[in-house]
Amino acid sequence: MLSLQWKPIAMTVALLQLYFLKEAESFPSLLDRINQLPGQPPVAFQQYSGYVTVDDKSQRALFYYFAEAEVDPASKPLVLWLNGGPGCSSLGVGAFSENGPFRPSGEVLVKNQYSWNREANMLYLETPIGVGFSYATDTASYEAVNDRITARDNLVFLQRWFEKFPLYRNRSMFITGESYAGHYVPQLAELMIQFNMKEKLFNLKGIALGNPVLEFATDFNSRAEYFWSHGLISDSTYKMFTSVCNYSRYVSEYYRDTISPVCSRVMSQVSRETSRFVDKYDVTLDVCVASIFSQSKVLSPQDVTETVDVCVEDETVNYLNRKDVQMALHARLVGVHQWVVCSSILDYELLDLEIPTISVVGKLIKAGIPVLVYSGDQDSVIPLTGSRTLVHGLAEELGLKTSVPYRVWFEGQQVGGWTQVYGNILSFATVRGASHEAPFSQPGRSLVLFKSFLKGQPLPEAF
């Protein structure tokens, strides 16, 4: 029995608990608020992370991390970021290695001065199910996952995420991503437009795709020319790589487990000349390759059997496997023993890679959605030449005239890359000196690109 002097205290605690529950009902996001990440420097913006269940029956839940804009988040757009793979983490790659507010350094986090949440409210989604902290209680959910399932889950995620964050419902929204997100992003955007025909929920203002897979043959077969023009292969090997067995044929055979002797010989020669000591995702990189970049390994199957000497400690993996970090993130490991950059339990339908998404991009443009395709120009996995060819071809198909002729753009007093715009709705840009993960290797230039994209303005023409 409580003594009289304790009754007012107990009543106060009970009232506070009731108030908090009422607040949580009005703003479910409160339960996902991050007080502070371990080792984090002080910041003024709010962070949230947690789960959104996309299938109640089999308890399939997608994990997200959300960093509100550094200044005046109410006036800034909402941006969803998706990494590729398929099967790699937007949390570990996008948020903690590329354009998020922090990067792990030893036991602590350091501020990323080029974080994209300087310009927008950044939402990072670990998708599909089985990637990172996202999970299903039914392991059958990890089997035969494909583009259609992923797009549908991502749509349901957004619908239910807006229930947690109702203040963002009518906010201007952009979707960005890289690599296999050349499939994820357009397919999700198409479903959002279809959904809006029944119920207006999404205020989609544009999509941006970095070094994206848009059309299998064009993207993959531009690799031979890239290798040859950068001195990575000989004239004779270039001839074989473009006539005897091109790269799209090799990858197609690889996924079907039917590699022909002729393709095997050609790829062995290509691998010998390019050398396993050159990073295919950044051909000018002169350091060891961290496993953080394995998000693209599915796009380079000849590298899968190679043993890569990782001579730098993967600090992101170490950080996200700390129990105190997982607790702060409201994250849990289900069915796996540790968090990994790219899923080892996901069985993705890799033949979806061969289904073109450039046609979906065309539909988005016809629906009035601006599109930016950008390429780190040191990437040989999805080279700029293939992306430029596809964008130019789409512009011609849609009858879009050049509105900004091909020219340089600037970051500070240096050339940031080259750009061309068609019909003020379809843009192509290169990021000079950037790898497959442009915001990692050229963060300053990538931030300039991102800022211009959000504002719908041409890239800086002068400094």
TrEMBL record:
Residues 1-26 form the signal peptide. GO terms for biological process: proteolysis. Keywords: Carboxypeptidase, Disulfide bond, Glycoprotein, Hydrolase, Protease, Secreted, Signal. Belongs to the peptidase S10 family. GO terms for molecular function: serine-type carboxypeptidase activity. This is Carboxypeptidase. Its main location: secreted. InterPro entries: AB_hydrolase_fold, Peptidase_S10, Ser_caboxypep_his_AS, Ser_caboxypep_ser_AS. Its EC number is 3.4.16.-.
